[in-house]
Fold this protein.
Amino acid sequence: MKLTPIFFLIFLYSTLLLSAFTSCKEPSTGPETRTDSLVLKVTEADLTSVTLSLHTAGITFPAALTLTRNSQPVQTFSLHQPDTTILDTALTPSTSYTWQAIWKKTETTFLKGEPVTGRTMDTTSHNFTWRMDTLGCAGSMLWDVAIVNDTCVWVVGEINAHPYDSGDRYNAAQWNGKGWKKFRILLPDWADDFSAMVINCIWYDGTGLWVFSNVGTYAKFKADGEVLFTGKTLERRGTPKKIWGYSPDHFYLAGTRGSLTWFDGKDFYLLETGTTIDLLDIWGLNENEVWACGYNSTTFESVIVKGNKNGFLPVNQFLPNKLRAISSIYPLNKNEMFFSAEGVPYRFPNTSIEMAKPFLSQGAPLNMTALTFRTRGNGENDIVSGGVRANIWHYNGSSWQTYPEIKGQWRIFYSLDFKDKLLVGVGYDLTLDDRALVVFGRKGGEQ
C-alpha cells in the first residue's frame, strides 16, 4: 500500500513515540538514596572536655537525639535546628574517645551518624630551670612585665640608680637574652611636664608596648625602646593597674577605685563598673566577654565584674562564703574561668560564677596566708600563679607544684608573664637591700 505524505508523517511520529515509551528505563530496584544525615565533628579538645559541632540534614524537628561516647549514651536532648554545639565534660586528660550522634526517627527506627574520634589535652611538665636577677638599688620595685619573645622581655616600675633616690631613677628595663638595659621612658603628667615617673603596667599588643604611669598618662614604644607617642587618658578617677586587649587599637585598662577604661583606637572612655573597690587584674575571653577583679587592701572585700565596652557589672554577689582578696582572674578555657582568693585557686563555668569551687587536685595550694597577685598561662594544662613569699605555683592539668628554690620570706611577685616555655615574675626582694626582683623560669632548657 502506498502511503501519502501526510499519512507517512503520522506513521513516523507514532512509531517514534511508541519507541520512546518502550525504551524508557525501568525504575531502579536498588537501595534508596538517603537524604537525612548527621555529621559530628570535634572542634576543640581541652584537658577534661571536648566541644563537638553537629550538622544535620533532612530530619524532622523537634528531633530526639542521643550522643554516645565509646558506644555508651552520655547525653540525650531535643534538637530544634539543623546545627548545634555539644560540650562533653568530665573526661580524662590525654585520652582518646569516640563519639556518635543518633536520631530516634520513630519508636523502632534510628539514624546513626558516622563515629568521630578525638583526644583530650595532655598534662605538661612541672620542670623549670630558674634564674634570679635584681635591678637597681634600695627602694627599687617592679610592678609588671611583658614578654615579647625569648630575647626581648620588658619590666616596668621604679628602678633607683642610687639608694632611695627617686630623683635619679629608671622606670623600665629590657632583657635582650644576655643582659639588662635600663630605660627612662619619659611620660607626661597632667601639667604637661615629662619625667621618668613610676610605670604601673605594660602590655605588648603585637606591634609595640603600651605603658601607663601611676597618674594615668601613657606612652607607646617599639620593642627596642624608641617611643612612638605619649598621651593622657581622659579620666583621673583611679590609678591604672593592668591592661588587657584583643587588638593593637582596642584594649581595657583596670585600676583603683573601681576604674575601668576602654580604648577604641582613638579615644579613652570611662566605663561604669558598679564598684569602688580597686580592680587589680583584667582578662577577656573575647571582645564582648571581659572580666576584672580586685579587693580592698584594708578590708580584703573583693569584687569580680564582667562586661564589655558598653559597661560592667559586679557578678560575685553569689560567691559562697564572701571570698576575700580576689587578686587575679584568667580563663582556663573558653568555658571556665580561674581566680585566686587568699591564695586558694578557684574555677567556675563562665556562665555560673555561683558554682565556683576550689581546685581539689593533687598539691593544691591551700595556704590561706600566701596571696597570689597574678595568674597567667598557656592553656588549661599550663597555668602559673605568683605572689607573696615569691611563691610560684604551676598547674599542669592534673596537679599543682611549687618551687622552694625561688621562695623567700621577704620576696614578693606583683606580676608575671608566661609565654610558651618562658615564665618571668617581677616584684621586689627585701632580703637583698629592697631591690627590684626578676625571676626567669624556663621549661626544658638552661637560662
